[in-house]
Automatic annotation (TrEMBL):
InterPro entries: IF-2B-related (IPR000649), IF-M1Pi (IPR005251), IF_2B-like_C (IPR042529), Initiation_fac_2B_a/b/d (IPR011559), M1Pi_N (IPR027363), NagB/RpiA_transferase-like (IPR037171). Its EC number is 5.3.1.23. One of its GO terms (biological process) is L-methionine salvage from methylthioadenosine. Belongs to the EIF-2B alpha/beta/delta subunits family. MtnA subfamily. SUPFAM superfamilies: NagB/RpiA/CoA transferase-like. It catalyses: 5-(methylsulfanyl)-alpha-D-ribose 1-phosphate = 5-(methylsulfanyl)-D-ribulose 1-phosphate. This is Methylthioribose-1-phosphate isomerase. One of its GO terms (molecular function) is S-methyl-5-thioribose-1-phosphate isomerase activity. The record marks 164 as: Transition state stabilizer. Keywords: Amino-acid biosynthesis, Cytoplasm, Isomerase, Methionine biosynthesis. It comes from the Bacteria.
Amino acid sequence: MKVDGKHFRSIWRERDGWSVGAIDQRRLPHEFVVARLISCEDAAVAIRDMLVRGAPLIGATAAYGMALAMREDSSDAGLKRAYETLVVARPTAINLKWALDEMRAALVPIDPVERAEAAYARADEIVEQDVEINRGIAGNGLKLIEAIMAKKKPGEVVNVLTHCNAGWLATVDWGTATAPIYLAHERGIKVHVWVDETRPRNQGASLTAWELGHHGVPHTVIPDNTGGHLMQHGMVDLAIVGTDRVAANGDVCNKIGTYLKALAAHDNNVPFYVALPSPTIDFAVNDGIRDIPIEQRSGAEVTDMTGRTADGRLETVRIVPEGSPVANYAFDVTPARLVTGLITERGVLKPDRAALAAAFPERIAAAAE
Ligand SMILES: CSC[C@H]1O[C@H](OP(=O)(O)O)[C@H](O)[C@@H]1O
Protein backbone atom coordinates (compact mmCIF):
# COMPACT_ATOMS: atom_id res chain seq x y z
CA MET A 1 0.00 0.00 0.00
CA LYS A 2 1.03 3.62 0.10
CA VAL A 3 3.72 5.07 2.33
CA ASP A 4 3.37 8.83 2.03
CA GLY A 5 2.00 8.53 -1.47
CA LYS A 6 4.57 6.00 -2.74
CA HIS A 7 3.46 2.40 -3.31
CA PHE A 8 5.32 -0.29 -1.40
CA ARG A 9 5.06 -4.01 -0.93
CA SER A 10 6.45 -5.73 2.16
CA ILE A 11 8.82 -8.00 0.17
CA TRP A 12 10.20 -8.03 -3.37
CA ARG A 13 12.88 -9.49 -5.63
CA GLU A 14 15.62 -6.88 -6.06
CA ARG A 15 16.76 -5.53 -9.43
CA ASP A 16 19.78 -7.84 -9.35
CA GLY A 17 17.26 -10.59 -10.02
CA TRP A 18 18.20 -12.82 -7.08
CA SER A 19 18.49 -10.98 -3.73
CA VAL A 20 15.35 -10.20 -1.78
CA GLY A 21 14.31 -6.87 -0.29
CA ALA A 22 12.03 -6.70 2.73
CA ILE A 23 10.88 -3.99 5.11
CA ASP A 24 12.50 -4.63 8.51
CA GLN A 25 9.35 -4.54 10.63
CA ARG A 26 11.31 -4.62 13.88
CA ARG A 27 12.40 -1.03 13.19
CA LEU A 28 8.91 0.39 12.55
CA PRO A 29 7.30 2.75 13.42
CA HIS A 30 10.36 4.84 14.22
CA GLU A 31 12.62 3.89 11.32
CA PHE A 32 11.85 2.68 7.79
CA VAL A 33 14.69 0.28 7.05
CA VAL A 34 14.89 -2.13 4.10
CA ALA A 35 16.77 -5.38 4.67
CA ARG A 36 18.44 -7.37 1.88
CA LEU A 37 18.24 -11.14 2.18
CA ILE A 38 21.01 -12.96 0.28
CA SER A 39 20.84 -16.51 1.61
CA CYS A 40 18.42 -19.17 2.80
CA GLU A 41 19.72 -18.59 6.31
CA ASP A 42 18.95 -14.89 6.01
CA ALA A 43 15.34 -15.78 5.17
CA ALA A 44 15.07 -18.21 8.08
CA VAL A 45 16.47 -15.68 10.55
CA ALA A 46 14.21 -12.95 9.15
CA ILE A 47 11.18 -15.16 9.90
CA ARG A 48 12.42 -16.38 13.31
CA ASP A 49 13.37 -12.89 14.54
CA MET A 50 10.25 -11.27 13.05
CA LEU A 51 12.04 -8.96 10.67
CA VAL A 52 9.15 -10.19 8.55
CA ARG A 53 5.99 -11.53 10.21
CA GLY A 54 2.39 -12.25 9.45
CA ALA A 55 1.33 -15.63 8.09
CA PRO A 56 1.18 -14.85 4.33
CA LEU A 57 4.41 -12.82 4.44
CA ILE A 58 6.15 -15.62 6.33
CA GLY A 59 5.12 -17.93 3.48
CA ALA A 60 6.36 -15.53 0.81
CA THR A 61 9.67 -15.07 2.62
CA ALA A 62 10.13 -18.83 2.89
CA ALA A 63 9.42 -19.21 -0.83
CA TYR A 64 12.18 -16.74 -1.67
CA GLY A 65 14.34 -18.47 0.97
CA MET A 66 14.06 -21.67 -1.07
CA ALA A 67 15.02 -19.76 -4.20
CA LEU A 68 18.06 -18.29 -2.45
CA ALA A 69 18.92 -21.81 -1.29
CA MET A 70 18.78 -23.17 -4.84
CA ARG A 71 21.40 -20.59 -5.89
CA GLU A 72 23.62 -21.98 -3.13
CA ASP A 73 23.01 -25.71 -3.56
CA SER A 74 20.31 -27.09 -5.87
CA SER A 75 21.07 -30.75 -5.15
CA ASP A 76 18.45 -33.00 -3.58
CA ALA A 77 20.38 -32.71 -0.31
CA GLY A 78 20.44 -28.93 -0.64
CA LEU A 79 16.70 -28.84 -1.28
CA LYS A 80 16.03 -31.02 1.77
CA ARG A 81 18.35 -28.93 3.94
CA ALA A 82 16.67 -25.69 2.85
CA TYR A 83 13.19 -27.05 3.58
CA GLU A 84 14.25 -28.27 7.03
CA THR A 85 16.00 -24.96 7.84
CA LEU A 86 13.00 -22.83 6.91
CA VAL A 87 10.11 -24.97 8.18
CA VAL A 88 11.22 -24.68 11.82
CA ALA A 89 11.64 -20.90 11.75
CA ARG A 90 8.24 -20.42 13.46
CA PRO A 91 5.67 -23.11 14.37
CA THR A 92 2.18 -21.63 14.20
CA ALA A 93 1.44 -19.98 10.85
CA ILE A 94 0.56 -22.82 8.44
CA ASN A 95 1.47 -20.58 5.50
CA LEU A 96 5.14 -21.34 6.16
CA LYS A 97 4.71 -25.07 5.53
CA TRP A 98 2.22 -24.40 2.75
CA ALA A 99 4.71 -22.26 0.82
CA LEU A 100 7.57 -24.71 1.39
CA ASP A 101 5.43 -27.61 0.22
CA GLU A 102 4.50 -25.65 -2.89
CA MET A 103 8.16 -24.91 -3.60
CA ARG A 104 9.23 -28.49 -2.98
CA ALA A 105 6.51 -29.81 -5.30
CA ALA A 106 7.78 -27.52 -8.04
CA LEU A 107 11.47 -28.33 -7.53
CA VAL A 108 11.77 -32.03 -6.70
CA PRO A 109 10.65 -33.26 -10.15
CA ILE A 110 13.09 -31.13 -12.13
CA ASP A 111 16.79 -31.28 -12.93
CA PRO A 112 18.87 -29.54 -10.23
CA VAL A 113 20.43 -27.26 -12.83
CA GLU A 114 16.97 -25.83 -13.54
CA ARG A 115 15.93 -25.44 -9.90
CA ALA A 116 17.17 -21.93 -9.13
CA GLU A 117 15.29 -20.34 -12.04
CA ALA A 118 12.21 -22.43 -11.35
CA ALA A 119 12.32 -21.56 -7.66
CA TYR A 120 12.32 -17.82 -8.30
CA ALA A 121 9.49 -18.26 -10.80
CA ARG A 122 7.37 -20.21 -8.29
CA ALA A 123 8.18 -17.79 -5.47
CA ASP A 124 7.13 -14.88 -7.70
CA GLU A 125 3.85 -16.71 -8.39
CA ILE A 126 3.22 -17.19 -4.67
CA VAL A 127 3.85 -13.50 -4.10
CA GLU A 128 1.52 -12.37 -6.89
CA GLN A 129 -1.09 -14.93 -5.80
CA ASP A 130 -1.06 -13.43 -2.30
CA VAL A 131 -1.80 -9.97 -3.69
CA GLU A 132 -4.63 -11.28 -5.86
CA ILE A 133 -6.13 -13.29 -3.01
CA ASN A 134 -6.06 -10.25 -0.74
CA ARG A 135 -7.81 -8.17 -3.40
CA GLY A 136 -10.51 -10.84 -3.35
CA ILE A 137 -10.74 -10.64 0.43
CA ALA A 138 -11.04 -6.86 0.10
CA GLY A 139 -14.03 -7.13 -2.22
CA ASN A 140 -15.82 -9.74 -0.14
CA GLY A 141 -15.19 -7.90 3.11
CA LEU A 142 -16.25 -4.58 1.60
CA LYS A 143 -19.82 -5.89 1.30
CA LEU A 144 -19.95 -6.27 5.08
CA ILE A 145 -18.79 -2.71 5.62
CA GLU A 146 -21.21 -1.38 2.99
CA ALA A 147 -24.13 -3.21 4.67
CA ILE A 148 -23.29 -1.55 7.99
CA MET A 149 -22.83 1.87 6.36
CA ALA A 150 -26.26 1.54 4.72
CA LYS A 151 -27.86 1.54 8.19
CA LYS A 152 -25.88 4.55 9.41
CA LYS A 153 -27.09 8.16 9.47
CA PRO A 154 -25.40 10.66 7.11
CA GLY A 155 -21.99 11.67 8.44
CA GLU A 156 -21.59 8.62 10.65
CA VAL A 157 -18.62 6.28 10.22
CA VAL A 158 -18.19 2.52 10.35
CA ASN A 159 -16.07 1.61 13.36
CA VAL A 160 -13.94 -1.49 12.87
CA LEU A 161 -11.84 -3.05 15.61
CA THR A 162 -8.79 -5.05 14.69
CA HIS A 163 -6.17 -6.91 16.74
CA CYS A 164 -2.47 -7.24 16.00
CA ASN A 165 -1.39 -6.53 12.43
CA ALA A 166 -3.16 -8.33 9.63
CA GLY A 167 -2.36 -5.45 7.33
CA TRP A 168 -0.35 -5.13 4.18
CA LEU A 169 2.74 -5.52 6.34
CA ALA A 170 1.57 -9.03 7.29
CA THR A 171 1.17 -10.01 3.64
CA VAL A 172 2.76 -8.95 0.38
CA ASP A 173 0.18 -6.21 -0.13
CA TRP A 174 -3.36 -5.13 0.91
CA GLY A 175 -3.37 -7.28 4.06
CA THR A 176 -6.20 -9.58 5.05
CA ALA A 177 -8.17 -7.91 7.86
CA THR A 178 -7.23 -4.50 6.52
CA ALA A 179 -7.96 -5.27 2.86
CA PRO A 180 -11.70 -4.46 3.14
CA ILE A 181 -10.81 -1.36 5.15
CA TYR A 182 -8.40 -0.06 2.51
CA LEU A 183 -10.91 -0.74 -0.25
CA ALA A 184 -13.70 0.99 1.68
CA HIS A 185 -11.41 3.96 2.27
CA GLU A 186 -10.50 4.12 -1.41
CA ARG A 187 -14.22 3.96 -2.33
CA GLY A 188 -14.91 6.97 -0.09
CA ILE A 189 -16.73 5.03 2.63
CA LYS A 190 -16.03 6.60 6.02
CA VAL A 191 -14.32 3.99 8.17
CA HIS A 192 -12.48 4.37 11.45
CA VAL A 193 -10.29 1.65 12.93
CA TRP A 194 -9.82 0.88 16.61
CA VAL A 195 -6.28 -0.51 16.67
CA ASP A 196 -5.44 -2.85 19.54
CA GLU A 197 -1.86 -2.13 20.57
CA THR A 198 -1.34 -5.90 20.91
CA ARG A 199 1.15 -6.55 23.64
CA PRO A 200 3.87 -7.70 23.90
CA ARG A 201 5.23 -7.11 20.36
CA ASN A 202 2.83 -4.23 19.77
CA GLN A 203 2.12 -5.12 16.17
CA GLY A 204 -1.01 -2.96 16.36
CA ALA A 205 0.58 0.13 17.88
CA SER A 206 3.77 -0.13 15.83
CA LEU A 207 2.62 -1.63 12.53
CA THR A 208 -1.13 -1.31 11.99
CA ALA A 209 -1.18 2.30 13.18
CA TRP A 210 1.86 3.05 11.01
CA GLU A 211 0.42 1.59 7.83
CA LEU A 212 -3.08 3.02 8.31
CA GLY A 213 -1.63 6.43 9.05
CA HIS A 214 0.62 6.42 6.01
CA HIS A 215 -2.33 5.40 3.85
CA GLY A 216 -4.56 8.07 5.35
CA VAL A 217 -7.05 5.79 7.10
CA PRO A 218 -8.56 7.26 10.31
CA HIS A 219 -7.70 5.16 13.34
CA THR A 220 -7.23 5.21 17.11
CA VAL A 221 -4.70 3.12 19.01
CA ILE A 222 -6.17 1.57 22.15
CA PRO A 223 -4.77 -0.56 24.96
CA ASP A 224 -5.61 -4.22 24.44
CA ASN A 225 -8.12 -4.27 27.30
CA THR A 226 -10.27 -1.42 25.90
CA GLY A 227 -12.22 -3.27 23.22
CA GLY A 228 -14.81 -4.78 25.54
CA HIS A 229 -15.74 -1.37 26.95
CA LEU A 230 -16.10 0.07 23.43
CA MET A 231 -18.33 -2.84 22.40
CA GLN A 232 -20.55 -2.40 25.48
CA HIS A 233 -21.10 1.23 24.45
CA GLY A 234 -21.94 0.58 20.81
CA MET A 235 -18.64 2.01 19.55
CA VAL A 236 -17.63 -1.03 17.50
CA ASP A 237 -19.71 -2.00 14.46
CA LEU A 238 -17.65 -5.08 13.63
CA ALA A 239 -14.34 -6.69 14.40
CA ILE A 240 -12.08 -8.01 11.63
CA VAL A 241 -8.90 -9.88 12.54
CA GLY A 242 -6.38 -12.00 10.68
CA THR A 243 -5.30 -15.55 11.40
CA ASP A 244 -2.27 -17.79 11.25
CA ARG A 245 -4.13 -21.05 10.87
CA VAL A 246 -7.80 -22.07 10.54
CA ALA A 247 -8.61 -25.65 11.54
CA ALA A 248 -11.01 -27.81 9.55
CA ASN A 249 -13.68 -27.24 12.20
CA GLY A 250 -13.44 -23.46 11.80
CA ASP A 251 -11.41 -22.78 14.95
CA VAL A 252 -9.15 -19.77 14.35
CA CYS A 253 -5.60 -19.37 15.62
CA ASN A 254 -4.46 -15.78 15.84
CA LYS A 255 -2.38 -13.39 17.93
CA ILE A 256 -2.73 -13.77 21.68
CA GLY A 257 -5.73 -11.84 22.91
CA THR A 258 -7.94 -12.53 19.91
CA TYR A 259 -9.98 -15.07 21.86
CA LEU A 260 -10.73 -12.53 24.58
CA LYS A 261 -11.84 -10.00 21.95
CA ALA A 262 -14.11 -12.61 20.41
CA LEU A 263 -15.68 -13.32 23.80
CA ALA A 264 -16.40 -9.61 24.29
CA ALA A 265 -17.84 -9.37 20.78
CA HIS A 266 -20.08 -12.38 21.37
CA ASP A 267 -21.32 -10.95 24.64
CA ASN A 268 -22.21 -7.66 22.95
CA ASN A 269 -23.57 -9.04 19.66
CA VAL A 270 -20.75 -7.42 17.70
CA PRO A 271 -20.03 -9.30 14.44
CA PHE A 272 -16.60 -10.94 14.68
CA TYR A 273 -15.01 -11.72 11.32
CA VAL A 274 -11.74 -13.39 10.46
CA ALA A 275 -10.07 -12.58 7.15
CA LEU A 276 -7.85 -15.23 5.62
CA PRO A 277 -6.33 -16.43 2.37
CA SER A 278 -7.02 -20.09 1.58
CA PRO A 279 -3.41 -21.22 2.22
CA THR A 280 -4.16 -20.47 5.89
CA ILE A 281 -6.73 -23.29 6.04
CA ASP A 282 -5.30 -26.47 7.57
CA PHE A 283 -7.56 -29.47 6.98
CA ALA A 284 -5.00 -31.65 8.71
CA VAL A 285 -6.12 -30.15 12.01
CA ASN A 286 -9.62 -31.06 13.16
CA ASP A 287 -9.64 -29.34 16.54
CA GLY A 288 -7.84 -26.01 16.63
CA ILE A 289 -7.73 -25.58 20.39
CA ARG A 290 -6.31 -29.04 20.92
CA ASP A 291 -3.99 -29.38 17.95
CA ILE A 292 -2.63 -26.05 16.66
CA PRO A 293 0.92 -25.52 18.04
CA ILE A 294 1.14 -22.26 20.00
CA GLU A 295 4.50 -20.55 19.73
CA GLN A 296 6.09 -19.40 22.98
CA ARG A 297 8.58 -16.60 22.43
CA SER A 298 11.33 -15.03 24.54
CA GLY A 299 10.34 -13.51 27.87
CA ALA A 300 12.36 -10.43 26.89
CA GLU A 301 9.46 -9.46 24.60
CA VAL A 302 7.37 -9.07 27.77
CA THR A 303 9.96 -7.68 30.21
CA ASP A 304 11.39 -5.08 27.82
CA MET A 305 9.95 -2.29 25.71
CA THR A 306 11.69 -0.26 23.02
CA GLY A 307 10.70 3.28 22.15
CA ARG A 308 11.97 6.65 21.07
CA THR A 309 13.25 9.13 23.62
CA ALA A 310 12.32 12.82 23.53
CA ASP A 311 15.62 13.56 21.80
CA GLY A 312 14.97 10.92 19.13
CA ARG A 313 17.10 8.04 20.37
CA LEU A 314 15.74 4.48 20.41
CA GLU A 315 16.06 2.94 23.84
CA THR A 316 15.00 -0.30 25.42
CA VAL A 317 13.82 -0.32 29.02
CA ARG A 318 12.78 -3.06 31.43
CA ILE A 319 9.24 -2.92 32.80
CA VAL A 320 9.14 -6.13 34.86
CA PRO A 321 11.05 -6.71 38.14
CA GLU A 322 14.25 -8.70 37.81
CA GLY A 323 13.56 -12.26 38.80
CA SER A 324 9.84 -12.24 38.04
CA PRO A 325 9.04 -15.25 35.85
CA VAL A 326 7.45 -14.43 32.49
CA ALA A 327 5.26 -16.39 30.07
CA ASN A 328 4.96 -15.27 26.44
CA TYR A 329 2.35 -17.26 24.48
CA ALA A 330 2.27 -15.66 21.02
CA PHE A 331 -1.12 -17.00 19.86
CA ASP A 332 -4.46 -18.30 21.06
CA VAL A 333 -7.33 -20.14 19.38
CA THR A 334 -10.84 -18.74 19.04
CA PRO A 335 -13.48 -21.49 18.80
CA ALA A 336 -15.61 -21.41 15.66
CA ARG A 337 -18.75 -20.74 17.73
CA LEU A 338 -17.45 -17.22 18.42
CA VAL A 339 -16.67 -16.44 14.76
CA THR A 340 -19.39 -14.75 12.70
CA GLY A 341 -17.76 -15.50 9.37
CA LEU A 342 -14.55 -16.18 7.50
CA ILE A 343 -13.77 -13.55 4.84
CA THR A 344 -11.92 -15.39 2.08
CA GLU A 345 -11.08 -14.75 -1.56
CA ARG A 346 -14.04 -16.98 -2.51
CA GLY A 347 -16.64 -15.34 -0.29
CA VAL A 348 -17.64 -14.98 3.34
CA LEU A 349 -18.01 -18.47 4.76
CA LYS A 350 -19.54 -20.02 7.84
CA PRO A 351 -16.71 -21.19 10.14
CA ASP A 352 -17.27 -24.90 9.64
CA ARG A 353 -15.86 -27.85 7.75
CA ALA A 354 -18.67 -28.08 5.24
CA ALA A 355 -18.33 -24.47 4.13
CA LEU A 356 -14.54 -24.62 4.00
CA ALA A 357 -14.53 -27.90 2.07
CA ALA A 358 -17.10 -26.66 -0.42
CA ALA A 359 -15.19 -23.47 -1.11
CA PHE A 360 -11.68 -24.90 -1.09
CA PRO A 361 -11.66 -28.62 -2.00
CA GLU A 362 -8.06 -28.31 -3.13
CA ARG A 363 -7.01 -27.58 0.45
CA ILE A 364 -8.43 -30.97 1.52
CA ALA A 365 -6.35 -32.70 -1.13
CA ALA A 366 -3.23 -30.85 0.06
CA ALA A 367 -3.80 -31.94 3.65
CA ALA A 368 -4.16 -35.54 2.58
CA GLU A 369 -0.75 -35.54 0.83
C1 LIG B 1 -2.45 -11.96 7.98
S1 LIG B 1 -1.73 -12.98 9.15
C2 LIG B 1 -1.40 -11.84 10.41
C3 LIG B 1 -1.26 -12.50 11.74
O1 LIG B 1 0.12 -12.77 12.02
C4 LIG B 1 0.43 -12.15 13.25
O2 LIG B 1 1.33 -12.87 14.01
P1 LIG B 1 2.89 -12.42 14.02
O3 LIG B 1 2.94 -10.93 13.99
O4 LIG B 1 3.41 -13.03 15.31
O5 LIG B 1 3.49 -13.07 12.80
C5 LIG B 1 -0.89 -12.06 13.95
O6 LIG B 1 -1.30 -13.29 14.47
C6 LIG B 1 -1.75 -11.61 12.82
O7 LIG B 1 -3.11 -11.70 13.01
